[in-house]
Amino acid sequence: xxxxxxxxxxxxxxxxxxxxxxxxxxxxxxxxxxxxxxxxxxxxxxxxxxxxxxxxxxxxxxxxxxxxxxxxxxxxxxxxxxxxxxxxxxxxxxxxxxxxxxxxxxxxxxxxxxxxxxxxxxxxxxxxxxxxxxxxxxxxxxxxxxxxxxxxxxxxxxxxxxxxxxxxxxxxxxxxxxxxxxxxxxxxxxxxxxxxxxxxxxxxxxxxxxxxxxxxxxxxxxxxxxxxxxxxxxxxxxxxxxxxxxxxxxxxxxxxxxxxxxxxxxxxxxxxxxxxxxxxxxxxxxxxxxxxxxxxxxxxxxxxxxxxxxxxx
Length: 313
Description:
Layout: E1 7-11, H1 16-27, E2 32-34, H2 46-56, E3 60-63, H3 71-76, H4 78-99, E4 103-107, H5 136-156, E5 160-165, E6 167-169, H6 182-196, E7 200-204, E8 210-215, H7 216-229, E9 236-238, E10 243-245, H8 246-257, E11 262-266, H9 281-287, H10 295-312
Parallel strand pairs: 1-2, 1-3, 3-4, 4-5, 5-9, 6-8, 7-11
Antiparallel strand pairs: 8-10
């Protein structure tokens, strides 16, 4: 990949992950990065995409844009999460093919895996069952883009790759309790509980499910390493290789925030998928990606960032 000569469209480039990818592109010497904003270019509209590609003339598209949220948001918006995510990718891949874009990188989701996938999740198990129900529409919408890329490679020789990052976290994440994922939600709740002197804090579910988390800088590096060094049809996991229970995660966040109250668990709320943990050997083998930031360190960085933001506000 000759970054100095590349013209890159980075969808979702103003978002949590996209901002870090943009920074890393700049650090690699890429000076031609186009970040379409939704108010100017609706990626659900093929005409808008056509105009974008005509003006930008990209050699590479990094498709990070997505409509996302935690369990609560997925339960409220299953139709929107399915339609928006599917149609954005379908139109963008088709128009990129027609425009002769040299390479397309699709960022998928861990939610595409079946609910009861054996841990660690291997890419070969992606089609072995239905995803966990609370986020299945989102996961399936993203998985259809893998089908599209593989079909386009077979029929048209279109060079599209599909990367599967595990749950992300880090500074700049979404801390809105209505739409956030588990780590930013816990951090915000514990920081606020500590400040108010609350004796206890309730958390969703039983705490028994497991998850794997990837620091946002590591995820951005994995995406760019894939863009640089991988041109194959098979999906590739991006993860840290460290599985942790939600209960143990809450303990780490409690330590990082300094909250000393009791943690209580509301088992009437859903747990989501029972276990998540990735086999990351394929990414290491194919393009040399390994996560660098340990979970405890990444959590402390995230807590410090959030605390500084709220103090400043």
